[in-house]
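Progress report, Aim 2. The chain analyzed during this reporting quarter is listed below.
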Amino acid sequence: MIENLPPCPKCSCEYTYEMNALVVCPECGHEWVPAETGAEGGDPAGARVVRDSVGNVLQDGDSVVVVKALKVKGSPSGIKAGTKVRSIRLVDGIDGHDIDCKVDGFGAMQLKSSVVKKA
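Predicted structure tokens for the chain:
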């Protein structure tokens, strides 16, 4: 257990609490991994760490499962929750889309790591 929890990076609330491996803000509901903020600022190796919606570290070639239904522009139906995506590739995408993949029935696209869970 972390004694001095960091304030929320989104709203600066100081009343954060620990829930499993995450730190949660009670005011705005933001959840984050506390080691993640320290690693970004002072990581000597410069390696970027991409985490899924529950805090698992993702790597190239992993399989993930979509955790919420996603609308796809130009498609009458979207990607359903529970859809498995194989062989992801981590990229520096636009607007937080940091996973490059092929989704069955939709083709190549980019996803945000916050909407997937490691399979």
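The mean pLDDT is 83. The chain has two domains: 1-40, 63-118. These observations will guide the mutagenesis work planned for the next reporting period.
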